[in-house]
Write a structure and sequence with these properties.
single chain; alpha/beta; D-Maltodextrin-Binding Protein, domain 2; two-stranded parallel sheet; 10 helices; 22% strand; globular
């Protein structure tokens, strides 16, 4: 009787272990750029639907937070709308972390104004002068006699870093500029203020804001991919070392035709032809 009990107990333990293996779920944590966020949210939803045993959590916070999460080992995939900086890379190496970059899409940073604003195009120099505070009235650039309200992203944003590189060229944004933490907040602010100007990733464009051309070039997917549009850029995710397990599978999914369809669906520019 005792032998039989031990055998049953042993079998029960085996089945419990097999059950644990069968239903074990790997957790993948994402953090970072609010520009990349819509791509990841949509892709995670599709991936988890096909892989119900995988758990994924996604949060924003800006590109700097995404890269910091990789360096601090608090996130598996860091989302970024800019490339990692040397000081970040050096810090990572000092902690034994090896940030690996993965390009997942292309983007265009679009200057936007209120739909009632009659200005349709600005040059890089005009944008710079507006953000430095040297041009303060819309009539100076062909608009109505209205004071310009400048809206910018905060300094933790990869979009801010890219704007700084392409437009500001290391000059300072005027102190009177409103600094906002996300693309979504920027769109809401511009939609409510007919005096305003701001900049967002192409995926956040909607009917509540008006896109401006830059140097006479519209910020379209085609112009971003060809780099004809002067404010085009890559979008990234970062991992610590070459990805493994579900992290590797998810990044492969992002780069696949199905994943790139999601990139196009949310308004960004796929890396491959989807025809």
């Amino acid at each position: 009787m005792l032998k039989m009990f031990k055998r049953v107990l042993c079998l029960a333990t085996v089945f419990a272990l097999l059950s644990t293996v069968s239903f074990a779920s790997e957790s993948v944590v994402f953090k970072g750029s609010t520009t990349v966020l819509p791509i990841i949210q949509e892709a995670v939803e599709a991936y988890m639907k096909a892989n119900p045993n995988v758990r994924m959590s996604v949060s924003g916070g800006g590109s700097s937070e995404g890269i910091k999460g990789i360096i601090d080992s608090t996130t598996d995939i860091g989302m970024a709308s800019r490339a990692i900086k040397k000081k970040e890379s050096d810090l990572a190496k000092s902690k034994g972390v090896n940030p690996v970059e993965h390009v997942i899409a292309f983007d265009a940073i679009i200057p936007v104004v209120h739909p009632k604003n009659k200005v349709a195009n600005l040059t890089i120099d005009q944008l710079s002068q507006i953000y430095q505070g040297n041009i303060t009235n819309w009539k100076e650039v062909g608009g109505n006699d209205l004071k310009i309200v400048v809206i910018s992203r905060d300094s933790s944003s990869g979009t801010f870093e890219t704007w700084d590189h392409f437009v500001m060229k290391k000059t300072k944004v005027a102190q009177r500029a409103q600094m906002l933490a996300s693309n979504g907040a920027v769109v809401t602010a511009v939609a409510k203020n007919r005096y305003s100007i701001a900049y967002i990733g192409i995926g956040y464009l909607n009917k509540n804001v008006k896109a401006l051309s830059v140097n006479g070039v519209k910020g379209t997917a085609e112009a971003a991919l060809s780099k004809e549009y002067p404010l085009a850029r890559e979008l990234y995710v970062y991992t610590n070392g070459e990805p493994k397990g579900e992290t590797a599978k998810f990044i492969a999914f992002l780069k696949s035709k199905e994943g790139q369809k999601i990139v196009g669906k949310v308004g960004y520019v796929p890396m491959i032809s989807l025809k």
